[in-house]
Amino acid sequence: MIVTALIIGTMIVMSVKSNIDKTEPDEYFETTTTIDSSEKETGLKQGNVPPDFELTTLSGDVVRLSDYKGKKVILNFWASWCPPCKEEMPHMEKYYRKNKDSENVEIIAVNMTKAERPGSAREFVDAYGLTFPIPLDKTGEVMDAYKIGPLPMTYMINTDGTIAHQVSGPINEKLLNELGNNLQ
Predict the structure, then answer these.
(1) Predicted confidence band at 181 (pLDDT cuts at 50, 70, 90)?
(2) Rg of the chain over CA atoms, in angstroms?
(3) Is the pTM of this model over 0.90?
(4) What is the dihedral angle through the alpha carbons of 133, 56, 139, 167, rounded to the nearest 10 degrees?
(5) What is the pLDDT of residues 59-82, one digit of tens each?
(6) Vertex 58: Cα angle to 179 and 20 (nearest 5)
């Protein structure tokens, strides 16, 4: 009887510890806000040209931000364990399917792969049926270059390659339409 109780107790402790290890800080549960970049320490400023990067996607393609100059770009940073990221992805996919051709817009959703367990990004993309490019930031260098704080973080980039808006927190279809369709 005592041995059974010890085994059950050990299993409960291991289960709780496993769930605690997966929990991320409360800072990832911020609400959506459009940021005036001059008021925020993290992130890049409105009007800046964002750093170029070269990353490999889940499908093995190479993505360079500079390849999208001349298109409106919605550059999103996310992770599969991030609840607000899960909240925004259906909105992003719906917006992308509706506007990718008619509005000359591209969504590039950079996965913070360095902060993921192997396979998480693929499972997430499959579960949400995402069709836009998903580059993998395996080293965290792009995240550092873009000064990413809480996730998700989204940059709206004009066709001339300058940042028009920064959004911290989940983005919905209404905000995507408002900001994305007004990119120049």
Answers:
(1) confident
(2) 19
(3) no
(4) -20
(5) 999 999 999 999 999 999 999 999
(6) 85
Place of tokens 């299993």: 11
CA–CA dist 107, 181 (Å, integer): 13
Beta strands, E only, 41-169: 54-56, 62-64, 72-78, 105-111, 153-157, 163-168
Q: How far apart are CA 16 and CA 129, in angstroms?
A: 31
**C-beta separation of 39 from 174 below 8 A:** no
Task: Give the alpha-carbon dihedral of 68, 74, 80, 85, to 10 degrees.
Answer: 180
Domains, the chain, ordered by start:
26-180 (3.40.30.10)
Q: How far apart are CA 121 and CA 13, in angstroms?
A: 28
For residue 59, give the amino acid letter.
Answer: S
Residue at token pair 């259906």: 90
* Per-residue pLDDT tens over the stretch 16-29: 334 333 434 333 33
Q: Which amino acid is present at 60? A: G
Cβ distance 134 to 57 under 8 Å? yes
Q: Which two tokens stand for residue 47?
A: 């009007």
| Tokens (6 digits) for 15 | 């289960």
Give alpha helix (H) positions in the chain. 2-22, 83-99, 120-128, 141-145, 173-175
